[in-house]
Amino acid sequence: MPKVAKNKATPLSFYDREDINKADLEKRLGPSSVAKYESGARRFVKFCADQNIPLWPDETALAHFVSLLSRDLQPSTINKYLTGKVHCLQEKFPFIVEARLSKRDRNSVQSCQKLFSDPIKRASPMSLADVHQTRLPWVDAMTTFLFQAQCETSVARRAKNFYNSKISLECLSGKMLCPAITDKNPGKLTSNIQPVPSFAHIK
Q1: What 3-state DSSP class applies to 193?
Q2: Beta pairing partners, 193
Q3: What is the pTM (predicted TM-score) of this model?
Q4: 39: which of 11, 102, 132, 196 lies 20 to 30 Å off by Cα?
Q5: Contact of 194 with 138, CB cutoff 8 Å
Q6: How many CA atoms lie within 13 A of 146 on its CB side?
Q7: Residue 202 backbone zone (phi > 0: left; psi -120 to 50: alpha; other: beta)
Q8: Residues 42-77 pLDDT 10s
Q9: Where are the alpha helices (DSSP H) in 27-95?
Q10: Are 155 and 171 contacting, i.e. CB atoms less than 8 angstroms apart?
Q11: Tens of pLDDT, residues 153-164
Q12: Is residue 130 packed enough to be buried (19+ CB in 10 Å), middle (13-18) or exposed (0-12)?
């Protein structure tokens, strides 16, 4: 059978491809991200209306917006609001990108985050008493590489700080010292030494 000639599609012009590219760019964000960005833009518009100033997102307006926003919301969310505002308003106000990256705006964000952020709460490091109290038989279910490395490193560091260098060297040589720490006899070391593989090379 003779082959049927296929109709060749008309090549797209540069401007047609530009429209396609713009449509692709509009789909780069999911619906939830778009909603969050629009929320940031609406908040800035409301800020300008409440302050009775024109909707003109220069670096001064952005810096004042950051100062107000950091007192109403979590400081960690400031950058998200600014990103949303830039995304929604940059087509109408192209200079907003430069204003967002200005030194004054970046310093305002950094200062407010330091002033109003909650202090970081870190867990206490492992102590010798913790190692002694949680000592279990060295079975396969317990002696993973990571757990042994953490225990040995912790004991070695504590021994170096609280005891003499000899104990520290024994810990680093692959012997885990488990002191019998009690109310009557605090800090006294026993001869109950359990050999474990050395992980002293791990920093």
Answers
A1: strand
A2: 177
A3: 0.49
A4: 102
A5: yes
A6: 1
A7: beta
A8: 989 999 999 999 999 999 999 999 998 888 888 888
A9: 31-50, 59-72, 78-89
A10: yes
A11: 666 666 656 554
A12: middle
